[in-house]
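Here we describe the complex-level prediction in full. Unlike the single-chain runs in Section 2.1, the two entities below were treated as one system.
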Amino acid sequence: MSTRKYSSTSREQLAESLFDIAATRGLDAASVREVATGAGVSIGAVQHHFATKDDMFLFAFTHVVDRVRARIDTGNSTGTLTDRLTDALSQLLPLDDERDREARVMTAFAVRAANSDTLGSVQRDTLAAIRAELTDILRAARIAKPELRATLLLAIVDGLTLDALSSSGLYDAAQLTDALTEQIRLVIGND
Amino acid sequence: MSTRKYSSTSREQLAESLFDIAATRGLDAASVREVATGAGVSIGAVQHHFATKDDMFLFAFTHVVDRVRARIDTGNSTGTLTDRLTDALSQLLPLDDERDREARVMTAFAVRAANSDTLGSVQRDTLAAIRAELTDILRAARIAKPELRATLLLAIVDGLTLDALSSSGLYDAAQLTDALTEQIRLVIGND
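The structure predicted for the assembly as a whole is:
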């Protein structure tokens, strides 16, 4: 069978190789050749799964976004409003090694999306969906201006993440958690 | 004189060429060759001003950061607290063509700074300085938790900017302004 020699890898495994490169050296370094080397397969094996580098990038971005969104959706839906928002938004902050790696990858893709219609479309759908979920939670709790404040909650985690990752450790995990806690407190009006 | 043939350009002009490329095609596309072409000079002219591509990137990042920070410093210092914070923070949002271009450039450098000690150092100093200025303004106005809330104000503009630029127009300028206004209102406690 013509696909036999590629059976040792998958699109998901190649995406993991891309994430490793993007998180440590940046997305610029994630060439088809480097992704193949990282996955321990041939360039042909990558090309078997992805016709172009753009296809590989689109799959990888969608893959990481889906994974993070699935984790947001599994957030505690029976806790207090503060707990629910904290659980969901904490998934987007670089608070441990896994989330740090994901945040680096997602932020790098976000910047690339500024100049790419296909990546920009994924980013737009992702932000709109997360904002809609946050809006629903705030509206159900009768918080004023739910959509505007959902915009602020989403922007605060994206901004804290960008500021933390880009500044060689200006903020540690405890500071990021404190900042998120304060923002949620301001948005939902608890003192 | 050996420098005569390079007299038609300057480090600042080369940085502008780099900004044009970074804002429209991304920082990956800003090679020495492309910067030279954009500036209408030879590769040798770029190499005369910058020994390496990293040197060029460091100068360009510092240059755009200095320009934006100078504009923040010229903010109205006699208006209300809301006016002063709005004036300063609006400089960091992509509200017109000039700020959109700068925001694209600074965001691209921020992501690159995640994997670069030299760029990360510039980013760290920049964020720390802006946060300190915001903290001073909040503290002088006797706002509670001034440093924590300054962290939130900085993160909100960085997050709104990243979300707006990356999502193919999810937010327009009016929405960004409304979001900033609401965040300032929440942080300083005015109703």
